[in-house]
Structures are given as C-alpha cells and as structure tokens.
Design a protein that fits this description.
The protein is mostly helical. The protein has 2 domains: 2-52; 68-348, Tetratricopeptide repeat domain (Serine Threonine Protein Phosphatase 5, Tetratricopeptide repeat, Alpha Horseshoe), CATH 1.25.40.10. It is 70% helix and 5% strand. The strands form 2 sheets. A two-stranded parallel ribbon has the order 1-2. Helix 7 runs antiparallel to helix 8 (184-204), helix 8 (184-204) packs antiparallel against helix 9 (209-223) and helix 14 packs parallel to helix 16 (331-348). The radius of gyration is 25 Å and the shape is globular. The termini are far apart.
C-alpha cells in the first residue's frame, strides 16, 4: 500500500515495516521545486530502506574447497618446509594453469620464508616488524597478481563465492608484504579491495569461512588505528570496522576456514598480544599451532614469547630450547631462528 504522510520519521517507520510512503507537504509550506526535491530524496530514502531490508541472497553450496594436493602444500608450509611447498605449488600451477590456487599457495609459502628471516624482538615482542624492499618481492607480488587475474576471469564466467575468496586472499597476501615494507597507502588499497571481495563472497555463500577470516582481520586492524589514522581513513574513504566483530569472526574462521585456518589462528593470537595485551588468551589460541606443527620454528618462538610476556618463564624457556634444537627444513629460517632462540634464552632465561 502507498501512504501519503507529512513527517519523514513516519515515512522511515513505514519503510521499516515494508510499506511505501511519500511525504506530502502542506500547500505553501515549501517552494514547489524544493518540495519536489524533498519528495524525491524521501522516495530515494524509502527505496534504500526497502532494499537494505530485503532478504539475503540464498546460500549456494560453493564454499571454498581444497584438493588433496593443495591441502598437502599447506601442511608443508606450516610444518616448516616452505621450499617443498613451493615445489608442490608449482606442480599444481602446471597441472591447473587456469586456477589461482597454485599461485596463492606458492605466494603463501614464500611469505612464511620471508616472515621467518625478518623476525626480530622489539618492545619485548617477536614479529617481522619492518624491512626494506627486496628483489624477491617482485616474484611474490607477481604470484598474487596472477592469482587475482585468474580468479577474476572465473568470476566473469560464473559469479560464485569461491573465486571472490581467491581474489580476497590475493589482496591479503599483497597487504602483508606492503605492511612489512611500511607502505601504508598500498596496505589500505589492498585491504579495502580484499574486504569488498569478502562481502560479495558472503552474499553468495554465507558459509565462506575464508572470507569471514579476512573480514575479521580487516575489522580488527581498522578499529585499532590511532585517532589521527582514523581521521585519515575517513578522508580516504576507507570503511570502518569493529574490533569485537573482528575477534568473533576470526575465532569462527580459525576452526572452519580451508585455506586460512592456520593464518587466522596465528594472526588472532598475535593481535591479542600486540594490541590488547591479552597474553593468556593469546596462548590459548596459539598453542594448537605448536602442537600440530612442532617443526615450525616460528610457532615455537612465538609461543615462547607469549609465555614470557604472560610471566610463564619455565614454559617460555622450554619453547625457546625447542626452537634452538629443532633442525628446521628451511636453512635460512633455521639459522635465524636458532640465533634468536639462543639470544632470548640468554637474555630472558639465563
């Protein structure tokens, strides 16, 4: 039914109820042109309310699924053998040249190689804080861009959730390296692009947990910005986020995601430590990483750092000793991690 009302509040209330309302003004109340403009704006507002109140698109059974080879590649990465993972990912690239999966997996493997050798202690916290551009960065970005292009080609043929998730993962991988190089504007653009793809993926498939993971990271990071940065975010048109929503989304995704389950668990624990000082909660989130992947030197060092920050010195020392004695398949990562573990043991646990 169409209602003619004289108050905008009533029109909005009717819109919320699913009715169509047009604001009618008293004769002489407003000049004709202004009244017509106001009516048009009101109708636009009503139609917008009706659109936003429309039921969501039906869920399609298109949640991201990984082949056995892709799952094995991820297991190689998190077991601390990224070089083996790169070889497996390259085989997937050759066997499935039109799929973005192999290229995303290779970029993921290369990221963890970079992360390990870039780790250092600052402000008492272990992380890859910042490093300058390196020649190998070009290969990494080329892999992410290739995956994005292939996924977009899939979207052009059939607009389903899975390729949107792949595009989002590609932009997220780029954002990681931009962050390590402290390229703030590039981080923002990649983050916003990833967010947009995740929202579309979740419209098409509400069970797309990998999209939820990326959206959770975005919401958390955006809400942790300083007041000055938030003001700049407003002028740059970067959408806002909620830290509480981000934590909830990451907690959901770390148990349900296919591609990003381990990454999400690691970043949630790291964020709880770095920005919220919730050390015991971070330990609870991170402990499965070390128990499932005891050969991963980064995870061992990270758990040692978390336990040290929480005041659990004996447990921290155990993790540092494990990191110092575990061989490690990646020689560059192992050499750096062993030196870090030795330094941490001597300075924090003499």
């Amino acid at each position: 039914m169409l209602y003619h009302v004289r108050h905008r509040r009533l029109a909005r209330w009717l819109a919320e109820k699913g009715e169509v309302a047009v604001v009618s003004f008293k004769p002489g109340g407003l000049p004709p042109k202004r009244a017509l403009m106001r009516k048009r704006l009101t109708c636009l507002a009503v139609s917008t309310c009706l659109f936003s109140a429309a039921p969501p698109l039906p869920t399609r059974a298109a949640n991201l699924t990984l082949s056995p080879d892709a799952a094995r590649t991820l297991d190689q990465i998190y077991s601390g053998d990224p070089d083996a993972a790169i070889l497996t990912a390259e085989a997937i690239e050759q066997s499935e040249p039109n799929s973005p999966v192999g290229f995303l997996l290779e970029a993921e493997a290369r990221w963890w190689k970079t992360y390990c050798v870039s780790c250092e202690i600052k402000w008492g916290m272990l992380d890859a804080w910042k490093r300058p551009k390196q020649p190998e960065d070009d290969t990494y970005f080329a892999l992410a861009d290739k995956a994005i292009d292939l996924a977009r080609a899939q979207i052009a043929k059939s607009d389903t959730a899975q390729p949107h998730v792949y595009v989002a993962i590609g932009f997220s991988l780029k954002a990681r390296l931009y962050s390590l190089r402290d390229e703030k504007r590039a981080i923002a653009h990649a983050g916003v692009a990833a967010r947009s793809e995740c929202l579309r993926a979740l419209e098409l498939d509400s069970s797309a947990a990998d999209a939820t993971a990326i959206l959770g990271l975005y919401n958390y990071y955006v809400d942790t910005l300083s007041s000055i940065a938030k003001m700049l975010r407003f002028f740059m048109g970067i959408p806002g986020g909620s830290k509480a929503d981000g934590i909830r989304q990451m907690r959901t995704a770390m148990d349900r995601a296919q591609f990003l389950a381990v990454d999400t668990r690691f970043y949630l624990a790291k964020n709880l430590r770095t920005y919220d000082q919730r050390y015991d909660e971070a330990i609870q989130v991170a402990e499965p990483l070390a128990s499932h992947y005891p050969q991963n030197l980064v995870f061992l060092l990270f758990l040692g750092n978390l336990n040290h920050e929480a005041g659990h010195s004996p447990k921290a020392a155990d993790y540092f000793r494990s990191a110092q004695t575990t061989p490690g398949a990646d020689s560059a990562c192992a050499a750096h991690a062993h030196e870090l573990a030795k330094s941490l043991l001597s300075s924090w646990h003499p």
